[in-house]
Each structure stands twice: as structure tokens, then as C-alpha cells.
Amino acid sequence: MNDPEERFTDLYDRHYRAVLRFALLRADHGLAEDVCSETFLVAWRRLADLPEPELPWLLGVARNLLAKQRDSRVRRQALVDRITALSTERDHVAWDVAEHVVDRDTALAALATLPEQDVEAMALATWHGLPPEQAAAVMGCSTRTYNVRLHRARKRLGQALRAEASKSAGRRARAGAARQRFAEEA
Questions:
Q1: How far apart are CA 159 and CA 162, in angstroms?
Q2: E strand segments, the chain
Q3: Do 106 and 164 meet the contact criterion of CB atoms below 8 Å apart?
Q4: Where do the TM regions start and end (predicted)?
Q5: What is the pLDDT of residue 166?
Q6: For the chain, how far is it from start to end, CA to CA, in angstroms?
Q7: Cα separation values, 170 from 33, 100, 174, 184, Å
Q8: CA pair distance 133, 143, nearest whole angstrom
Q9: In the chain, which residues have pLDDT < 50?
């Protein structure tokens, strides 16, 4: 088969059910379908490099994708656990939507003042959870350079947050006064 589309169609027809079964043994139905689809996307991209027999290779790709999903879930749960541990009952009772909106707006405004490279360095470390070696590879620099960029980006973010916080203090005061007027009128 010289036509890549025919070769891929044949590969898909022969192995889709086996890859899906493999994924279903390790994940719920929705995730298993996603992993199966992504496995065949990888296969399509690497069609010229597929080894014979293909099934073990496809199952290996699916296994790696499932591991990435599992790691991602563990990181998300760890973040939820940390937030929960730092929250008190008072935080839940006294939760004020307006204050959280102001906090979010303050953080977004501070981030908007930073250079794109600073935001990228911090996102790779915090959002994507990459270790410095991998983040440096993404940014195309050495690990040492990445660590310096990340340190400087965090310092600039702290300065920007302090500047934005002083601006938002006035907004909070106005919001508090508005809530007070509303409470008095009610």
C-alpha cells in the first residue's frame, strides 16, 4: 500500500477495537475514546515510521497517553488538596464574590503588564508543571537561563501585583461603600 490514507485506514480498521479495549481496561469510556483517538493521531503523524507489527506500538502509545492523563489528574487533585488545606470554614462562609472578582482582575491586570516571555516561563512551571529542564527545552534555552528568567519573571510579577493591589484598594473601598449603601437601603 503506497497511499498513506489507505494504509492508515487499514491500520485503523484492524486495530481500533484492540486499542479501545486496552484503554477501557484502564480508564472510563470518555477518556478511553479520547486516548484511542489521540493514539491514532500519533500513528497518522508517524505513519512512515510505524514498526511491524503495529499493534504493540499502538498499545505503547496508548499506555503513555494514559499515563500522561493520570499524571495530569494527580497534579490537579494535589492542587485542589492544597487549596482545600489552606481554606478555612470561615473562608467558605464569608466568601464574597465581588472580592474574588477584584482579586482575579488584579492578578490578570498584573499579568498583562509582564512581557510574554515572563508569562510563558511562569506558565510552563506553574500551569503545565514542567521541571526546569523541560521548560528550558520548550523555551529554547539552557536550564540555567530558564531558571534566571523564571526568577526575574516572578520578581516582576510580585512588583506588578503590588502596584495593581494599590490600584484595586481604591476599587475595593468603592465596592464596600456601595455594598453598605445597598444594605442601608434594603
A1: 5
A2: none
A3: yes
A4: none
A5: 80
A6: 78
A7: 50, 15, 6, 21
A8: 5
A9: none
Top-level class of domain 4-85 = mainly alpha
CATH number listed for the domain at residues 96-185: 1.10.10.10
Q: Give me 5's grid cell.
A: 490514507
Spell 70-98 as b/e; 16+ CB within 10 A means b. Answer: eeeeeeeeeeeeeeeeeeeeeeeeeeeee
Q: Which pLDDT value is given to residue 58?
A: 94
Q: How far apart are CA 57 and CA 50, in angstroms?
A: 8
Which residue's C-alpha cell is 449603601?
Answer: 181
Give the Cα separation of 56 and 62 in Å (integer): 10
Question: Cis peptide before 53, with omega less than 30 degrees from 0?
Answer: yes
Q: 12 in helix, strand or coil? A: helix
Length reported for the chain: 186
Dihedral over Cα of 167, 170, 172, 174: its sign: negative
Residue type, 138: V
